[in-house]
Specification:
two-stranded antiparallel sheet, single chain, mainly alpha
Length: 262
């Protein structure tokens, strides 16, 4: 049950609070969103709450990247071993990888520009939206959250920051894939060997193709949790301000040039 039911009387809405999370639109820098799509296809769309498109691009990136050995080629290129870079790349998969990679960057930029325009119009319309949602499996509500705590939990395990700010869909997706990346890369086993002082074993056991997915995953999780906690706080404060003005402020109250006028 929600404290406000959408009656579809507005053309645009700024936010929607459900048991699966808080979805909102706000002003974003299109270049930053495009950069995240370049860092890892799908991340830009997930930042925009375009979940289905973001998940599809993310899974495409993982599958095609591994099949084409893109990460492995990057490692050899960093080492200056151009011959091995050419040797490991599988062009049968690589030629499918490039168009979708470019599409992800272009589409995230285009979508951000469109959503920015939509937010400006929705902000002017300033229609009501629900701020509390209660269901048999979960409860969600607008509230102030600490952005720093969201980052800290994301750095412990990607996805925990999203759980903290109640972005359930993103949290579930990020946590599942970080488990996959840790398992396939043997990163935790390598850390165990490092604690034991076995440097050679730690280096040998690592799978670099899967390991290279982790930095982007950690970075996205921390950035997404931080940014959305700030925007959720802004939305909460604005919703509270509007509620108090409508229910408790005198209709004759005015402020002109910094002075109260009754």
């Amino acid at each position: 049950m929600d404290n406000y039911k959408n009656d579809n009387t507005a053309k645009r809405y700024k936010a929607h609070v459900s048991i699966l999370g808080t979805t909102l639109i706000h002003l974003r820098n299109p270049y930053i969103i495009a950069w995240w799509s370049a860092a890892f296809p799908g991340f830009g769309h997930m930042l925009l709450s375009k979940y289905l498109r973001g998940y599809a691009l993310f899974i495409w990136e993982v599958v095609i990247n591994i099949k084409a050995h893109v990460n492995l080629a990057m490692i050899y290129s960093f080492q200056g071993n151009i011959a091995m870079t050419k040797e490991v790349l599988d062009t049968r998969w690589l030629l499918m990888y490039i168009p979708v990679y470019l599409f992800g960057i272009w589409d995230s930029y285009r979508t951000t520009v469109d959503l920015n325009k939509g937010f400006i119009l929705a902000d002017h319309e300033d229609h009501r939206f629900n701020s509390f949602s209660l269901g048999p499996g979960e409860v969600n509500y607008l509230d102030n959250r600490n952005p720093l705590m969201a980052v800290i939990w994301s750095l412990f395990v990607p996805g925990l920051g999203q759980l903290y700010i109640h972005r359930i869909l993103t949290a579930f997706f990020v946590i599942v894939w970080v488990v996959v990346f840790f398992y396939q890369s043997h990163a935790l086993e390598a850390i165990s060997f490092l604690f034991l002082g076995k440097i050679k074993e730690a280096t040998t056991i690592l799978n670099p193709e899967w390991l290279l997915f982790l930095p982007s995953h950690y970075g996205f999780s921390a950035f997404d949790a931080y940014m959305n906690s700030i925007e959720n706080n802004k939305l909460f404060e604005k919703e509270q301000r509007k509620y108090l003005m409508e229910h408790y402020q005198s209709t004759g109250f005015r402020i002109l040039k910094g002075q109260k006028v009754k």
